[in-house]
Amino acid sequence: MSNLDIKRRKFVTGATAGSLILAAPQIVSARSLGSAALGQGLSPMKHGSMKVTEFKNSKIHSYQSPNLTGCVTTHIIETPERLIIVDGQRSVIYGQEIRTYAESLDKPIDRMIISHLHPDHWFGAYQFRDVPIHALKQTQGEIDQLGEFFIEISKPSLGDHVPPVKVVPDVLIADGASETIDGVTLEYKHVTDAESDNMLTISLPNEKVLIAQDLLYNNCHLFCGHGNFEGWQKSLKDMRKDTGFDLILPGHGDNSGSRQAIDDALIYLEFVEGVYQKVSTGDELKAAIIDRYPSYLAESLVDIQNLFLFPKK
Ligand SMILES: [Zn+2]
Hints:
By secondary structure, the chain is α/β, with parallel strands linked by helices. The chain has helices spanning 3-13, 17-23, 30-34, 92-104, 137-158, 229-241, 260-278, 282-292, 300-309, and strands at residues 43-44, 49-54, 59-64, 73-78, 83-86, 109-113, 133-136, 171-173, 178-181, 184-192, 198-204, 209-217, 247-252.
């Protein structure tokens, strides 16, 4: 068994399935989600919201789920000829909302790309199971190995939002690869030991956009359940040095047109790591985080994170 397998086993077995069920946000009905607060500048949809950024040769449509499910994002890259969708939401209902929106753009859906293994980024990919789904080899393996587990533990709290079967990516993306699609260049990077053990970032150098997904959160609580504080901070420092982008698309929260979100994330991680070393319970850690960041969204992620940081013996 490789180190990666051992770490992955640790991540999953750290929290029991029962405790994960208790921590997951209770979704009573799709309707109740529709009334959640929306960020400024976002166009509300029935469940989430959509924000469109226009470039010379392309557009990016950024979907954000309601706060209750963590303001998780999906981005639709619209080239002159087709649509490329990045990440698939925690819910097949939101996945369908994005699918319906994508079809209204009247261009073929070329592919979906999944950034990492966490189910808030691929449950809704079930609604795109008829298109090629791309991911890193490591992410393909992680979803294949853990997909059923995530589905089973999510059913009691998420109900109709959970896909009936896992959606395993079927096309592999290599670290360092790049491709140009209808004049839009995508550059892929494999980032390790950060918010998740394996993560994909996508740069659009001509548009000066970085699709960071969960390497960056914006005004949302960061999920620190893997405990990779040092590795994540290093990746954020590398991001800060990169002058190739002006707009960052985070995995949770609104798009960031400034680098402030990177510094905010670094400070947040330093704070959580420091408190984590001093306290002995998840409740203490959560109280300190909420006290320090009272306005941050996606509070439910702190509860889920704490199940991994404070595993029941
Ligand atoms: Zn996420």
